[in-house]
Amino acid sequence: MAGAAAHLAPHSGSATRFEANVATRDAPWVKYTVLTIGLTYFVLFLMLPLVAVFAEAFRKGWEAYLAALVEPDALSAIKLTLIAAAISVPLNLVFGVAAAWAIAKFDFPGKQFLISLIDLPFSVSPVVAGLVYVLIFGAQGWIGPWLSEHDIKIIFAVPGIVLATIFVTFPFVARELIPLMQAQGRDEEEAAVTLGASGWQMFRRVTLPNIKWALLYGVILCNARAMGEFGAVSVVSGHIRGETNTMPLHVEILYNEYQFAAAFAVASLLALLALVTLAIKTYIEWRAGLNSSVETSS
Amino acid sequence: MASARAARVLPGFGLSLGFTLAYLSLIVLIPLSAVFIKAAGMGWDGFIHAVTTPRVVASYKLSFGASLLAAAINVVFGLLLAWALVRYTFPGKKLVDALIDLPFALPTAVAGIALTALYAKNGWLGQLLEPLGIQVAFTPLGVLVALVFIGLPFVVRTVQPILEDLDAEFEEAAASLGASRLQTFRRVVFPTLLPALLTGFALAFARAVGEYGSVIFIAGNIPMVSEITPLMIITKLEQYDYQGATAVASVMLMFSFTLLLLINGLQAWTSRRMGREG
Does B105 contact A224 at a Cβ distance shorter than 8 Å? Predict the structure, then answer.
């Protein structure tokens, strides 16, 4: 559940309606005090760390920055991060659509409990998320001996990293789709089926257009977390350079070796990813807000 | 609604629910149960001993104490920010609104090294605090700063929609009955926001207790002083003490489950309240 606070909820608009109303307008000194304190807090705790990443990354200039990014270990970390996201995001996308379909369109006992279970990975510490896979697939784990007999490596290898990433990003798409599809009900789909649409036609022509913004929203948040996950991946990775290091783990290694400029150079790529994610997220919120205002006015 | 019959009209119930349950079990439920099964195999005495060693207990105090404090700080400043974003017009508001979610999007390791660079002795903020005798990096205060950072969006994002949906009528009624702005806020607005504030607090708290990446760089990880509980699990794993790691993990899991129930209850309370008043 922790982490679930970000939801596709179109903002209802401008503050002028509050500032124009005598009953809801604050005295100027209140407004400027609240703004000063709030924005100072914002700058101190959010803006400064973000600016610091880029300032530190470019401290030794462009050449050192680029050199840190094209170095073989960095490249292999970038590759592994992309692989982990490319496997975990589609899987959790399919799961999210399936779970939301079952939960929103049908009635069955224990539905609320199922929703809580889907949220579970959000409230589990990333470190514990990594640990559970060590307990199952590790050398001393449940099926560790069988795996080593058959020469299959999961822990301290790529499959473990992918599994841990799937775990921590598990609820993202489902969380966005379930409340939306529940609110939409099943009338439109039922109409489509009654009119003779096949299951796939119904999904593609009716369901998908209704959920596309929430779906995209869930996917970009899922992707950001998948590429940035540190704690869970750190437990199962084994930190083998050039083999099992993702970008966040590579940042940690460089940092602990006092290669600060290089660490921040790789970190700046991840910060850029975060900024792009937020930009897309803002765009989707704007589009979804546009859609919902069109629907309510028509 | 004849739901049983409606259920038969739409296709894919068995397939979608079957896949959901199978995937959920394979990825989440069976792996999590491994923690409890492994912990149960230790026996009661061994378990209690593993989760109450002085170093582990010191880590609980730090993790839970700093998380509570960070969540409380975010309740105050999160409310101010949410209020500013909903009620006031000011330049750069869209940018502030978009960047509030940065802690959700920024990888924790990146946040960790950025905060450490800021608060280290020669950092932008560290060199300002140094003459005042305040040391943040590599102390428990550093843990607090990191947890404030990652918890920042929760209160803002839970309070903001409630504040937006809050009808001006209530405040108009209060004003017409002669209430001052402060009275109106205290007696009319604040009670409406309370469930959302508590939900935001609980979400920020839950996230902070389990947080690892943003904390370990700035904490310094001094045993008994600045070691958080998730780090204890890692430390035990690195010493091949799987049982000890599992025991501490099961304590954290039980805590997460309790908090999850609490948050679900709080959210039900929020939606009931909004349903009644909206």
Answer: yes
